[in-house]
Amino acid sequence: MGNVLVFSLIALVIYYVTPYRSVWWYGGLWLTGFLFVLFAFLYLPLLQLTCVYQANEDYLEYRRGIFFMRKSRLAHRAVTSVSLVRSPFSVLTRTTDVFIRGMGANLYIPFLEKEEADVLAEWITSHGRKERG
User: I need a surface site. Which of 32, 38, 60, 108 has the fewest CB within 10 A?
Assistant: First the structure.
C-alpha cells in the first residue's frame, strides 16, 4: 500500500510543479503510469510466486523476496494466536492473509488460498493444544 502512496505523491508533484500540458507534464504522467503498471503487473505477481512457507513440528518458517530472500521463523511453543484476514482486495484474488502472533515475534503470511490458510491455521492451533497439554 505504501508504493501506491508513493506513486500518488509523484503524480501530485508532477501535476503541481510542471506547467500544464507541457512536454514535462505529459512525460511525468506517462512515467508515473508506467511505474504503476510495472508494479501492478510484474512486482506483485512475482512477490506472490516467491512467498513460501514451511511448517514442521518445531517451527514455522516463511521465505519471501524477489531480489533478496528473507527468512522469518517462529517456534511453535511461542505461538499465542492465529488470525485469518480477508480484505476487499483479497476477496477479488481469492486469497487470505495469515497473522501468527507469538511471544516476542509475529509472522505474516500473505497470498494463501482460503482452503490452505484454513488448514494451516487449524494445524497450528491443534499442534499448540497437543504441545501445551
Answer: 38
- Distance (Å) of CA 36 to CA 11, 17, 28, 104: 11, 20, 12, 36
CB 45 within 8 A of CB 90: no
In angstroms, the CA 80 to CA 104 distance is 10
Q: Do residues 74 and 37 both lie within one domain?
A: no
- Same domain as 97, residue 55: yes
pLDDT digits 0-9 by tens, 35-91: 889 888 988 888 888 889 998 888 999 999 888 999 999 998 899 999 999 988 888
Torsion of CA 127, 128, 132, 133, to 10 degrees: -50
54: nearest Cα among 74, 78, 68: 74
Tell me which residue range forms the domain holding 7.
Answer: 2-47
Grid coordinates standing for 23? 512536454
